Amino acid sequence: MMVGKTIPAKPEVNAYPVRRRLMVVLPVAVFAVLALVLAWGLNRNAADIPSALIGKSVPEFILPPVEGRVLGLSSADLVGEVSLVNVFASWCVACREEHPVFIRLAADKRVPLHGLNYKDRPEDAAKWLNTLGDPYTRTGADLNGRVAIDWGVYGVPETYVVSADGRIAYKHIGPVTEKALNETILPLVERLRAEAKERRS
Questions:
Q1: Cβ contacts of residue 4 below 8 Å, gap of 6+?
Q2: Which long-range contacts (CB under 8 A, 24 or more apart) does 15-21 make?
Q3: Which one, of 171, 172, 165, 163, lies nearest residue 190 by Cα?
Q4: Alpha helices in 9-92 (DSSP H)
C-alpha cells in the first residue's frame, strides 16, 4: 500500500511588497527624468533655438506704423537689401536692455533696423519710442500678434537677419548684446551682402 506523499503547496506570492516598491521607485524615477530635462533646458542657450523659417521667405504681411510714425512695415520692405527686424514691446523688460545697443547701431547706419511692435497699446509704444529714442527705419504695429506668430516668434525680444532676397537668415532670441551684434549678427550681415553682390555681378 503506497502512502501518498503530501506535495507542499507553492507559497503565495504577495504582490503587496512589489506594489509598495513601485510606489517608492516610480516617483523617484519620474522626478529624476524631470530634473534632467529641466537642467538641460536651463543650461541651453535660448538664442540658439532654431527657427523653422531659416532659409525661407519672410511671411507676407502689411502693418501700419506705430503711432506717431510715418512708415509702416511690410514683407515688400524687406526685399532689396540686408536688414534686421526686431520684435519689441513697451511692456518688455528685456527690450529695454537691448534698446541702447540698437540706438548706437542706428547712429552708425551700418544696417537698416526695422521694428515689429508686438501686442502693444499704440499710445504705450509711441511713448516708449519717444522717451528712449527710435532706432527703427520702419515700424509695424502688430496689435493682435498675428504677424509675429507667422514669423514663429516665441516671445519678445527677438531679432531676425533678413537677406536681400527677403529670406530669414538668422534668428536671435532674447536681448541683443554688443557681443552678439559684433560677433554674430553684423558678420552675417556682411557675408549676406557679399553674397548678394556676387549674385548681381
A1: none
A2: none
A3: 163
A4: 15-43
CB atoms within 10 A of CB 17: 9
Q: Which residue has better confidence, 52 or 17?
A: 52
- pLDDT(24) > 80: no
186/193 Cα distance (integer angstroms):
10
The answer to whether the CB of 141 falls within 8 A of the CB of 173 is no
According to DSSP, the β-strands at 168-173 and 73-74 are unpaired
Q: What is the DSSP letter of 121?
A: -
Residue 42 has a pLDDT of 40
Higher-scoring residue by pLDDT: 62, 31: 62
What pTM was estimated for this model as a whole? Answer: 0.76
State the pLDDT at residue 40.
40
Task: Report yes or no: 162 and 169 within 8 Å, Cβ to Cβ.
Answer: yes
168 phi and psi angles, rounded to 5 deg:
-75, 120
Q: Please give the residue that has the higher pLDDT: either 168 or 11.
A: 168
Instruction: Read off the pLDDT of residues 30-45 as tens digits, 9 standing for 90 and up.
Output: 655 555 544 444 444 4
| Amino acid making up residue 17 | P
- The residues, any chain, with a CB within 8 Å of residue 51's CB and separated by 6 or more, are 152, 168, 171
C-alpha cell, 156? 519678445
Q: Say if residues 159 and 83 touch (Cβ distance below 8 Å).
A: no
Report the 10 Å Cβ neighbour count for 38: 10
